[in-house]
Amino acid sequence: MSEAPLIAGWDIGGAHVKACLLGDGGLHDVAQWACPLWQGLDKLATVLGQARARWPMLDNAWHAVTMSGEMVDLFAQREDGVQAIAALLAQTFGDAVAVYAGDAGWCSAAEAAAAWRSIASANWLATARLAARRSGQGVLVDIGSTTTDLIAFADGRVLAPERSDAQRLASGALVYHGVVRTPLCALAPRIAFRGRLHNVMNEFFATTADVYRLTGELNPAHDMHPTADGATKGLAATRQRLARMIGLDARDASDDDWLAFAQAWRGAQLREIAGQLEHVLATHRLPADAPLIAAGCGDFLAPTLSSLASGRPFSSYAISVCELASRPEQAAWVQVCAPSVAVAMLFALDKECF
C-alpha cells in the first residue's frame, strides 16, 4: 500500500449507490446514482461502470464498502444479498475490496459470506461511528430518501446496543420514513385539508417527494426515482398526485390549498420522526446541549426537528464530522452520501492511510 492511497467509499443501497473518492488527505469527489437493485444485479453493475467512467483511477484504489442493498426482494435471504454484492465488487475491483463488518472490523469479499450478519445494513453504523470518533456526543439524524436513522453517541462510541434493522426498528433508532420514496399513505390515516380531517386513500398515489417538491425543499438532484403514476415531476402533476390521496383532482382547489396540504403531510412526517427522536434521547439520557448532527438528502428538516426537540442545537455532518469538503456543493453531497464518506474515512483511519 502506498503512503497516500486512493480510497473509494461505497454505500450500496437498495435504491441508490453512494460513493466517494479520497486521496492525499482530502476528498476528491462524491456522487450518487439511482440503482433499483430489486430489478437485478445488472443495475449495480451498470452503476459501477458509470463510476469507473467518472473516476478512471478506481482500478488503482482501495474500496471500502458498506451496504443495505441485501434487503431488496431480489434476494431470497439477506445472506445471499451480502454475498452477491460483495462478489460483484470483487469481480469488478479485484482484491482491493474491504467490506465493513461493523463491530467485527473489516473483511475481504471472500470472507463476506461468513460475516454476513455483521455486514448486512451496517452503513448507519459507519456513519454514526465516525461521528462518535469526531464529535464527542450527540445524535446522528440521517434523513434519507427512504429511511431515517436516529443514533445516539457519546465518549467516542455509539450508545445503542442494537445492530440489525429488526432490532433498530423495535428501539426507534430506525424509522422507515424518507423524503423521496415513502408512500404518503404510510404517514397518516387521516390528514387535514381546508380545515377538515379526511381519511387517506391507502393507494400508491403519491410519495414524500411530491410533498417536498411542492414545498420547494427537495433538491431536484436528489429526486432520482420515478413518480408514483409515472407522470412528470412538474408542479401541476405533483398537485394532481397529492389530490388523489383524498379522492380529488388538482382542479378542485387552488395552488395555495395544495401547498397547505403538502405542509400538512410535512407536519405528519415530522411529528413521527420527532416522536422517535424523543424516545432515543430519553433512552440514552443525553444532556440538553448534545447536538443533532444532520445528514441525508432530508437534512433540511433538521431545523424543525431541533425546535421540536426543545431547541436542541444542530449542525451538519459535513461540517462537524467529515471536514473534508472544499466547496459548498461538495459539502452538500457529503451530506447526502455520508455513509460512503464515513466508511472511506474509517478505513483510512483504521489502516493509518492518512
Describe this structure in words.
The mean pLDDT is 93. With 354 residues, the protein is an alpha/beta fold. A hairpin with a 3-residue loop joins strand 1 (6-12) and strand 2 (16-23). The strands form three sheets. A six-stranded mixed β-sheet has the order 3-2-1-4-5-6, sandwiched between helices. The chain has helices at 41-54, 78-93, 116-119, 123-135, 165-171, 208-215, 235-244, 255-284, 302-308, 317-322, 328-336, 338-350; strands at residues 6-12, 16-23, 26-34, 61-67, 97-100, 106-108, 138-143, 148-154, 157-158, 174-175, 190-193, 196-199, 292-295, 314-316.
- End-to-end Cα distance, whole Å, is 12 Å
- Summed over residues and divided by their number, the pLDDT gives a mean of 93
The number of domains is: 2
Largest sheet: 6 strands, mixed
Low-pLDDT stretches are none
Strand arrangement within the widest β-sheet reads 3-2-1-4-5-6
- State the order of secondary-structure elements, H for helix, E for strand: EEEHEHEEHHEEEHEEEHHHEHEHHH
- What fold name stands as the CATH topology of the largest domain? Nucleotidyltransferase, domain 5
CATH architecture heading of the largest domain? 2-Layer Sandwich
State the helicity in percent bands: 25-40%
What is the strand content?
15-25%
